[in-house]
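Severity: low
Component: inverse-folding endpoint
Summary: output formatting inconsistent between runs
Steps to reproduce: submit the following structure tokens with default settings.
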């Protein structure tokens, strides 16, 4: 993000040996230690849960938008049921976000607003480093898995689908069960 101009340039400094953004890693480590040292780990945990759910929703929206905006892109693996399942998942994640503690929800929203503000300020101050171009060959998006790997992926997807479906049914039953037992 720093190389793209979305964060201060100092976070783009990478190790010559490992090519990792060591400044960003150190800053994140110091912030994590500070959160632990100030006994605010519970707040951090709940805010992280909010952020995880929020980013899942953003990822789902981005994936759906990409499929609609760029249907010509070759996809090596197409997830069946994503047009209906993805929006349902996004709604479930939003509902889960609203079930968090009120302070956690408000804190999560404030952190998201703060993050957007930081992004906009950095974008304005550091400008664009260059437009992003999607290199399909470098990203591996063009890679087609061998038949045995595709079968394994399909099998894993089927297992995942059964587990998620069963979990949803169990959750609904557990939710409505108290209304019928009095």
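Observed output (run 2 of 3):
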């Amino acid at each position: 993000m720093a190389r793209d101009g979305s964060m201060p340039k100092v976070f783009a400094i990478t190790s010559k040996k490992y090519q990792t953004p060591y400044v960003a890693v150190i800053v994140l480590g110091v912030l994590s230690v500070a959160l632990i040292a100030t006994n605010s780990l519970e707040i951090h945990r709940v805010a992280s849960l909010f952020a995880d759910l929020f980013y899942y929703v953003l990822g789902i929206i981005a994936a759906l938008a990409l499929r609609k905006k760029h249907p010509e892109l070759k996809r090596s693996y197409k997830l069946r049921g994503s047009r209906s399942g993805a929006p349902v998942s996004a709604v479930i994640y939003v509902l889960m976000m609203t079930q968090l503690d009120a302070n956690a929800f408000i804190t999560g929203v404030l952190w998201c607003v703060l993050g957007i503000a930081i992004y906009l300020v950095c974008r304005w101050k550091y400008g664009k480093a260059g437009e992003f171009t999607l290199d399909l060959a470098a990203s591996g998006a063009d890679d087609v898995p061998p038949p045995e790997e595709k079968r394994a992926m399909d099998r894993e997807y089927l297992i995942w689908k059964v587990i998620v479906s069963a979990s949803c049914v169990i959750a609904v039953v557990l939710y409505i069960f108290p209304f019928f037992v009095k």
